[in-house]
Amino acid sequence: MSNNIDLKKGLDLPISGKADLETRETIVPDVIAIQPSDFKGLNARLLVKEGDRVLAGSPVLADKKATDILVTAPVSGTVEQIVRGDKRKLLAVLIKADKNPEYLDFGAKDPKTLQAADVKEALLKSGLWAGIVRRPYGILADPEVSPKAIFVSAFSTAPLAADTEYTLGNEIEALQAGIDALLKISKVYVGIRSTESRFAALKGTETYVFSGPHPAGNVGVQISHISPIRKEETVWTVSMPVLAAIGRLFLDGRCDLRRKVAVAGPAAQNPAYVETLPGLPLKALSKFYGASAEGLRIISGDVLSGANAGANGYLGFFDSTVTILKEGTERELLGWAKPLRTSRYSCDHSYFNWCLGWLKPSRKYDMDTNLHGGPRAFVISDAYYAKVLPMDIYPLYLIKACLAGDIDKMEKFGIYEVLPEDLALCEYIDPSKSYIQDIIQNGIDLMLKEMA
Questions:
Q1: Cα–Cα nearest to 400, from 422, 415, 419, 417
Q2: How distant, in Å, are the alpha carbons of 48, 136, 217, 225, 424 from that of 7?
Q3: Mean pLDDT for the stretch of residues 308-333
Q4: End-to-end Cα spacing for the chain
Q5: How does DSSP assign 234-290, residue by residue?
Q6: Separation between Cα atoms, residue 156 and residue 227, nearest integer Å
Q7: Cα separation of 245 and 127, whole Å?
Q8: Which of 119, 195, 267, 298 has the fewest Cβ atoms surrounding its Cβ within 10 A?
Q9: Cβ neighbours of residue 193 under 8 Å, at least 6 residues apart?
Q10: Tens digit of pLDDT for each residue in 28-66?
């Protein structure tokens, strides 16, 4: 039986360029990248060297402290390059992929017959443990700590995000196997969009139906309404693509990270879906943005909280969306004195076109990256941020506590309940042009440092 939660606060951005529900092609790139930065909290130790042969599922990285936590190869092939940055920081491991992938065999198992320790061992050896995120702080889950619950959001409300019903609606068997495995560890909560969702058929879970605007699909928002995180409590979150991969591990005995990825955005040409793997070079998507990426911003993830990867970057491990925007480099002469802007969107109805929006609420806008102004005095009204954040916290005071580095106040105002993505809309509507997600991440990093 489902529980219904109707969220009133939030904002759905009317941005153009939604991907058609059509998979245009399957892309098996020549090179796949494994990026340690995708896995927050991973203190990476390299397990391979250039020239080594790997199979899909072979260990490539390990955590220096928790050595049983591995990151494995998503493809078979040869380690082509170890990419390092300043002070020899490990940035990526590039694997030249085989045309016909070979998988390391972990052995098919029925998760219903396993114990919790067996499930953990299978996830650790396959590298899929790295896909489990611990809250608070959004870091790798600790195998030695039992969570009070595991949360899965079966939909995304982020702008132009991949439609989970389309990408994974035909993989119910794998998703159910993933649920069965996680149930051996803890109770599992699943957030769905409606009772008509295909994922409502998943068994063994406690299901909640969330309606309302973005960020209703954020797992952090769902946790805050189902079972808020308190001090000393730990929960785990698992994304739908990772849940499907966990299911395939137990059904087929191999680490299979294939996923459908939405290529979308106002600057995307014929936006649609491709089937590929995490670590995909984004230049392999050039047919979606033309011969040159000059003047474009290519984001791995959604437009609000994704990473600016660029054409030379790679698809993140947790991402199922690539967003292509035009860089907003143009400056408007006396823009502040032009309230009649029919091509601009304003969430505060600052332009006269808001009345036209009432006549045509489905209108979409070709948004770009222009901030339309520079940094200015910090807004002092908590109600301003709270209108787009459906969580029982005080976002303004939390942001100020993070800026001040005041741990006591950060705890008091909700640092345990949020990740930067949860306040992405606060950053979008912020008249001060502050980088709120960076502020929250800096606060989390301080907590991790001081609480270690």
A1: 415
A2: 48, 22, 11, 10, 17
A3: 91
A4: 41
A5: -EEEE-HHHHHHHHHHHHHSS----EEEEEESTT-SS-EEEEE-TT-BGGGGGGGT-
A6: 20
A7: 11
A8: 195
A9: 154, 155, 165, 209, 210, 211, 217
A10: 889 999 999 999 999 999 999 999 999 999 999 999 999
- With DSSP H G I counted as helix, E B as strand and the rest as coil, what are the percentages for the chain, rounded to 5? 30, 20, 50
Bridge pairing between strands 321-326 and 259-264: parallel
What predicted TM-score, i.e. pTM, was given to this entire model? 0.94
pLDDT digits (tens, 9 = 90+) for 91-124: 999 999 998 999 999 999 999 999 999 999 999 9
264/17 Cα distance (integer angstroms): 5
Residue 88 DSSP SS3? helix
State the angle between helix axes of 436-451 and 395-404 in degrees (0 to 180), rounded to the nearest 10. Answer: 60
Q: Look at residues 304, 310, 298, 235 and name the one whose alpha carbon lies nearest to residue 271.
A: 298
Of 121, 123, 119, 126, nearest to 105 (Cα)?
126
Task: Give the residue carrying structure tokens 């149930």.
Answer: 183
Give the span between the Cα atoms of 377 and 371, in whole angstroms. Answer: 15
User: Residue holding tokens 């030695």?
Assistant: 144
